[in-house]
Amino acid sequence: SLNSETQTTASTCCYCGVGCGVLIEHDGERILGVQGDPAHPANFGRLCSKGSTLHLTGDIDARALYPELRLAKGLARARTDWSTALDHAASRFAETIREYGPDSVAFYISGQLLTEDYYAFNKLARALVGTHNIDSNSRLCMSSAVVGYKRSLGVDAPPCSYEDLEQSDCVLIAGSNMAFAHPILFRRLEAAKAQRPDMRVIVIDPRRTDTCDLADLHLAIRPGTDVALFHGILHILIQEGWVARRFIAEHTEGFEALETQAADSTPEAVAELCGITESDLRCCAEWIGKSPTFLSLWCMGLNQSTAGSAKNSALINLHLATGMIGRPGCGPFSLTGQPNAMGGRETGSLANLLPGHREAGNAEHRAEVAQYWGVDSLPVRPGLTAIELFEAVRDGRIKALWIACTNPAQSLPDQLKIHEALAACPFVVVQEAFFTTETCRYADLLLPAASWGEKEGTVTNSERRVSHVRRAVPAPAEARPDWAIVCDFAQRLESQLRPGLPSLFDFDNAEALFEEYKQLTSGRDLDLTGIDYALLDNQGPQQWPLPVGATQGTPRLYVDGRFPTASSRARFVADAYCAPQEPRDDRYPLTLNTGRLRDQWHGMSRTGTAARLFGHVEQAMLSLHPDELHQRGLQDGQLVRVTSRRASLILPVQSDDAIQPGEAFLPMHWGDRFLKGLGCNVLTLPAFDPLSKQPELKHAAVAIEEA
Ligand code: SF4
């Protein structure tokens, strides 16, 4: 219960990319409660089941509290002090770099870090160590959207605002169960549709999810056929004269090639391929083509695919063809999975990027960043992306690995191979708030990190809005903020790698990191130079770009029809449809889809500590269409063995007619701690998109039998 001692600190929710504002209630030592922040423009005071239970999830018994070190594999880790821990880590990294070169070490970080944490890691890897081997779990989340935006529009910038949800007449939701994954935005959409019942909502998803409750039209396409569907819609738009010829002529390039390609995507052929009716396909195209405004929302169903980049561009094509971009209620709008995947992209926290939306493969960009950091140069050799990086760990090329705020032993595909890699890596550092994750098992050095409510910094949500994340209480025991751990380690490594030179990591607080970082965005598309902590405190969260001198942020991009490409025109992308990597066959006759539940987050390190959050779904179950159970003589609740080409998993089955025959669904959250035999990713395959390198976590062929 709250009393007169209770204080309130405004911050943000640490789960999804909606980025809701929260008010943390505390007594200066302990967090006592949480409320939605009525002043935050993402949620106006609302919170979903996950956000409203944040204060119940900090279970101290699950927290990493002290640095722990082991000097040889097979030994148990023992408690140590910070100085010993970081000196040891610096020596191990320095020895490895001296003996095998800078690319023998790697950093695997997280979309849940704060912008300042990301920046410190980037500077550490690229400026001090001299490697681009720094990738993040955003590779599993948004990297296909990054490629989609860059190829089609020039830069990685979602052009819309949440208020477009309230202003659109036709909203297409593709590959997203936003009712579960982005609940507060879904509530906003529900409210908008209640207010304006003429608003059309189209949902594209192989499953009939809770999001479909709002749909006027649900296209339950065959898994992975999205590109064919979007080309089919474009075919009808062209055929019916529903394309914006003037916008295309004045503001785009490449339409002819796409038009030629779309000519083959006849409604008959596309309906057949996608497993939908031609009339539904035509209805979808007509609603888009005749609507005065058109907004599309998407998430992992498009991104986590070997055709993820093509799916993103094919959807953006529809906006360019209809001119539905840069206006209220219009535009392609990716829903960011993690709370600060955007900040990661901004600071260059994917192997192929550099801070300020720069490219690691661009010599001019490398020179700009090197000069700003005061180092001679940045490496030319490309860095390894998530799947490649763990392959390199497994085959011995990476000999020292630093993992922060993420659980690759559960979240990467072909999970057993990841466990092999981690077991074989000579030196693994895990920087974590919760010691209960699968990955911590492999840590030679475990570094306790501060968590939600215990650290300060900034995050950017899906609509480019930067919020100030504030610290309410001290971190427990010896846990420290991520940026502070990185800078402390970096200074020790500097004394070995560049002795006598001034430190690159002389930061007293998170704000100092932000102030240095933001100058790297000066003149770039995401210019943040007009933002500082005081502005965020006084005027609230702001949408970039907000350059120095501007009085407020930018709600909508491309309003003048000019795009940040060489020609100032947006680009149509004419990718052909490619089937998913692993088709089903007689031996593996079902397509496995994976996804989120309403009340759990990622690998449950946090949500798994609150009993209340198991009220919605108590345990992991494999969902199958009733006919599939019947054919196999299976009963609801019976244990089954699910087998893919990689491994098997035993768990109960449940009948669910929201799943199409021939398909299966598994929630992604359960790992070793809750499910004997690890999690859904023992089954998934490590194939990835050739451009975004994002793995195909939503499509694997499996077989089911009684266990
Ligand atoms: Fe947190 Fe996302 Fe729920 Fe908002 S919608 S409260 S950010 S989990």
TrEMBL record:
Species the sequence originates in: Metapseudomonas boanensis
Source taxonomy? Bacteria, Pseudomonadati, Pseudomonadota, Gammaproteobacteria, Pseudomonadales
Could you say which residues of the full protein are shown? 2 to 708 of 910
Alphabetically list the UniProt keywords. 4Fe-4S, Iron, Iron-sulfur, Metal-binding, Molybdenum, Nitrate assimilation, Oxidoreductase
User: Which cofactors, by name?
Assistant: [4Fe-4S] cluster; Mo-bis(molybdopterin guanine dinucleotide)
- The name of this protein is Molybdopterin-dependent oxidoreductase
> What positions does the domain 4Fe-4S Mo/W bis-MGD-type occupy?
6-62
Family membership noted in the UniProt record? Belongs to the prokaryotic molybdopterin-containing oxidoreductase family. NasA/NapA/NarB subfamily.
Superkingdom of this protein's organism: Bacteria
List all membrane-crossing ranges: none
